[in-house]
Amino acid sequence: MVEFFQTLHWGAVFQIILIDILLGGDNAVVIALACRNLEPKQRMQGILWGTAGAIILRVLLIAFALTLLGIPFLKIVGALLLLWIGIKLLIPDEDEHGNISGGSSVLSAVKTILIADFVMSLDNVIAIAGAAQATHLDHQIYYVIFGLIVSVPIIIWGSTLVLKLIDRFPLVVTFGAALLGWIAGGMLVTDVFVVDQFGPTTTTFKIAAEVIGAILVVAVGKWFASRKRASRNTTHGSV
């Protein structure tokens, strides 16, 4: 045991924990937003299933994540998915005929979480694998597994915290949706096809794309939401 700790690459451990805190927060926001309309007793189910899905996806992505990121248009498709998920989160999904059943609500939330997590976990896995490359070749897989294990409590705790903030400050939903748009904008301009066509993405251009993505999600989401509310009010008024 002492020998193990002596050979431990503490720099890699620190980097992996920092990556989990920074990137795991994105997953926590997605899970919290997807679960916000569930009953309190169902929220933990959604969080746990969503977290389990996020971890399973990361495990599956580890083996071929580097290859996936080399596929043209993959990040573009992922960015479009995140944009749609962000917009959809801003559109009220309750209707006038009562609530959706508990089981289908949890299933719907978990489905949204899995789609978003699949897209967002790519960068997380790549970052952890990159940090692990500084270690001995025979030990790299253990550092990657360590990163996945550490991410579990971070995502669960983060999701619970964000849900509490959403209950007190509904505006957090808008910020969460904007975050997805921000991530989507960055993914879009770093896709292999875009880089091949226009050259390496500069920091300024990437930030501009992230800002545009955030604004686009909020603007389109709010527009759809206002149209849905107007349509509902018109329907109620004609009854």
Automatic annotation (TrEMBL):
Signal peptide start-end: none
Membrane topology note: Multi-pass membrane protein
Highest taxon of the lineage: Bacteria
Family: Belongs to the TerC family.
Name of the protein this chain belongs to: Tellurium resistance protein TerC
Transmembrane segments: 12-35, 47-67, 73-91, 112-135, 141-163, 170-195, 207-225
InterPro entries assigned: Integral_membrane_TerC, Integral_membrane_YjbE
Main localization of the protein described in the UniProt heading: membrane
Cellular-component GO terms for this entry: membrane
Keywords assigned: Membrane, Transmembrane, Transmembrane helix
Locations listed in the record: Membrane
Source species of the chain: Pollutimonas thiosulfatoxidans
